[in-house]
Amino acid sequence: MSLSNKPGMILSIILIVLLYSSTSFARNPCVPKDFNKGGTVCVCNSTYCDTIEPADKVAAGKFLIYSSSIDGLRLEKSVGNFSNSTIPSGVKFTVNRNRTFQKVFGFGTAFTDSAGLNLLKLNNTEAQDALLKSYFSSEGIELNFGRVPIGGCDFSTRTYTYDDSENDTSLSNFNLTSEDFEYKIPIIKRAQEISGKPLKLVASAWSAPPWMKTNNDFSGFGFLHEEFFATWAKYHIMFLDEYKNNDLKFWGLTTGNEPLNGIIPINRFNSLGWSPQAHRDWIANNLGPQLRNSQHNATKLIALDDQRFLLPWWIELVFQNEDAKSYIDGIGVHWYWDTLYPAQSLTRTHLKYPEKFILGTEACVGDKPWEKEKVMLGSWARGEMYTRDIIEDLNHWVTGWIDWNFALDKTGGPNWASNFVDSAIIVDEENQEFYKQPMFYALGHFSKFIHEGSKRVHLGRQKGPSALQAVAFLRPDQAMVVVVFNGKGLDVPFILADPKRGTIRFTAAKHSVHTLVYW
Ligand SMILES: *[C@@H]1O[C@H](CO)[C@@H](O)[C@H](O)[C@H]1NC(C)=O
Ligand SMILES: *[C@@H]1O[C@H](CO)[C@@H](O)[C@H](O)[C@H]1NC(C)=O
Ligand SMILES: *[C@@H]1O[C@H](CO)[C@@H](O)[C@H](O)[C@H]1NC(C)=O
Ligand SMILES: *[C@@H]1O[C@H](CO)[C@@H](O)[C@H](O)[C@H]1NC(C)=O
Ligand SMILES: *[C@@H]1O[C@H](CO)[C@@H](O)[C@H](O)[C@H]1NC(C)=O
Ligand SMILES: *[C@@H]1O[C@H](CO)[C@@H](O)[C@H](O)[C@H]1NC(C)=O
Ligand SMILES: *[C@@H]1O[C@H](CO)[C@@H](O)[C@H](O)[C@H]1NC(C)=O
Ligand SMILES: *[C@@H]1O[C@H](CO)[C@@H](O)[C@H](O)[C@H]1NC(C)=O
Question: Could you tell me if 233 and 169 are in contact, meaning their C-beta atoms sit under 8 angstroms apart?
Answer without folding.
Answer: no
